[in-house]
Amino acid sequence: MLKRMISGLLILFFLAACGGVDSQEAPEETQQSEETETEQPEPETEETSKGEGEDTSQEEESDEEAKDSESADETSAQPEEEPKEPQYKLGANWSFEPIADANPQVALITIDDAPDKYGVEMAKTLKEMNAPAIFFVNGHFIDTEEEKEKLKQIHELGFAIGNHTNSHASLPDLTEEQQKQEIVGLNDQIEKVIGERPKFFRAPFGQNTDYSKQLAKEEGMLVMNWTYGYDWNEEYMSADAIADIMVNTELLNHGANLLMHDREWTYNGLTQIVEGLRNKDYELLDPALIQTP
Ligand SMILES: [Zn+2]
After folding, report:
1. How many Å lie between the centroid of ligand 1 and the Cα of residue 138?
2. What pLDDT sits at residue 84?
3. Ligand 1 centre distance from Cα of residue 276 (Å)
4. Which pTM value belongs to this model?
5. Are 106 and 284 in contact (CB under 8 A)?
């Protein structure tokens, strides 16, 4: 009787022990399958990071590998450029104001009518100076393959691309259908070239209509004019003159939205402009920090 009870207990103990082994193995198996799953999105990460610099994408990948398999699974599913939390919003007179405790002494550089003759070189100059900017693109400047390549280059140098309409026509003169073609049509074109739609809209001559504002909003674009600009006035068509007025104007205030163009003299004055703004303790506003609809 006692023997039976003992052997019965031994069998129970043995079964329990086996069960224990099984339940220990289970997590190991799922961990492995999670690891193999996380390898799958990697080719995508490599594809989407084209032109962004191979070093960066490699760093990101090794960072992911270092993390545990669960979080690596989440991060590798995201695009390589994580959207930043907005820190600035459009305020009065097309200037920008901090949302919370961001530095109020900022200025935004915008380059309109791009990419014409100097856009790519302007982007390279700004990149060298680590100065962010928005390039507002016109559809008639991205007709040919060569022109599309310029747009691609500017985007791949890390600059925000804005919509400045297809033909640079005055929007109030157009029908709604024409305005749609000017705005949404250009977004379609830009997306084909750089793989994403613009987040910023600037109407030619700053002439918005109720309909164009509505379209921009539907497209998720922030409508912006500018606070000041001078490079279309004859007296400022030299590097020194434009660099001086862009930095030493009374209109330079916190959150200023600076309008410049893809023009020879503006390109030649660009380094001086960036240095001048920084000497006045202005930080150049990163468009990625601007709140969009
Ligand atoms: Zn323009």
Report:
1. 8
2. 84
3. 24
4. 0.73
5. yes
Degrees (nearest 5) of the Cα angle 264, 267, 271? 150
CA of 232 to the centre of ligand 1 (A): 10
Contact predicate 243/272, CB 8 Å: yes
Between the alpha carbon of residue 31 and those of residues 27, 73, 197, 293, the distances in Å are 6, 12, 38, 41
Give the architecture (CATH level 2) of 108-288. Alpha-Beta Barrel (3.20)
pLDDT band at 54 (very low <50, low <70, confident <90, very high): very low
Rounded distance from Cα 43 to ligand 1 centre (Å): 39
**CA 7-12-15 angle, 5° bins:** 125
Residues 105-128: pLDDT tens digits? 999 999 999 999 999 999 999 999
Q: Ligand 1 mean position to 21 CA, how many Å?
A: 72
The alpha carbon of 172 and the centre of ligand 1 are apart by a number of angstroms equal to: 15
Rounded Cα distance between 255 and 266, Å, is 21
Amino acid at 86: P
Local structure of residue 119 (DSSP, 8 states): H
- Ligand 1 centroid to residue 206 C-alpha, Å: 8
- Residue 113 Cα to ligand 1 midpoint, Å, equals 5
How many other C-beta atoms are found inside a 10 Å radius of the C-beta of residue 96?
25
Q: State the distance from the centre of ligand 1 to the C-alpha of 73, rounded, in angstroms.
A: 44
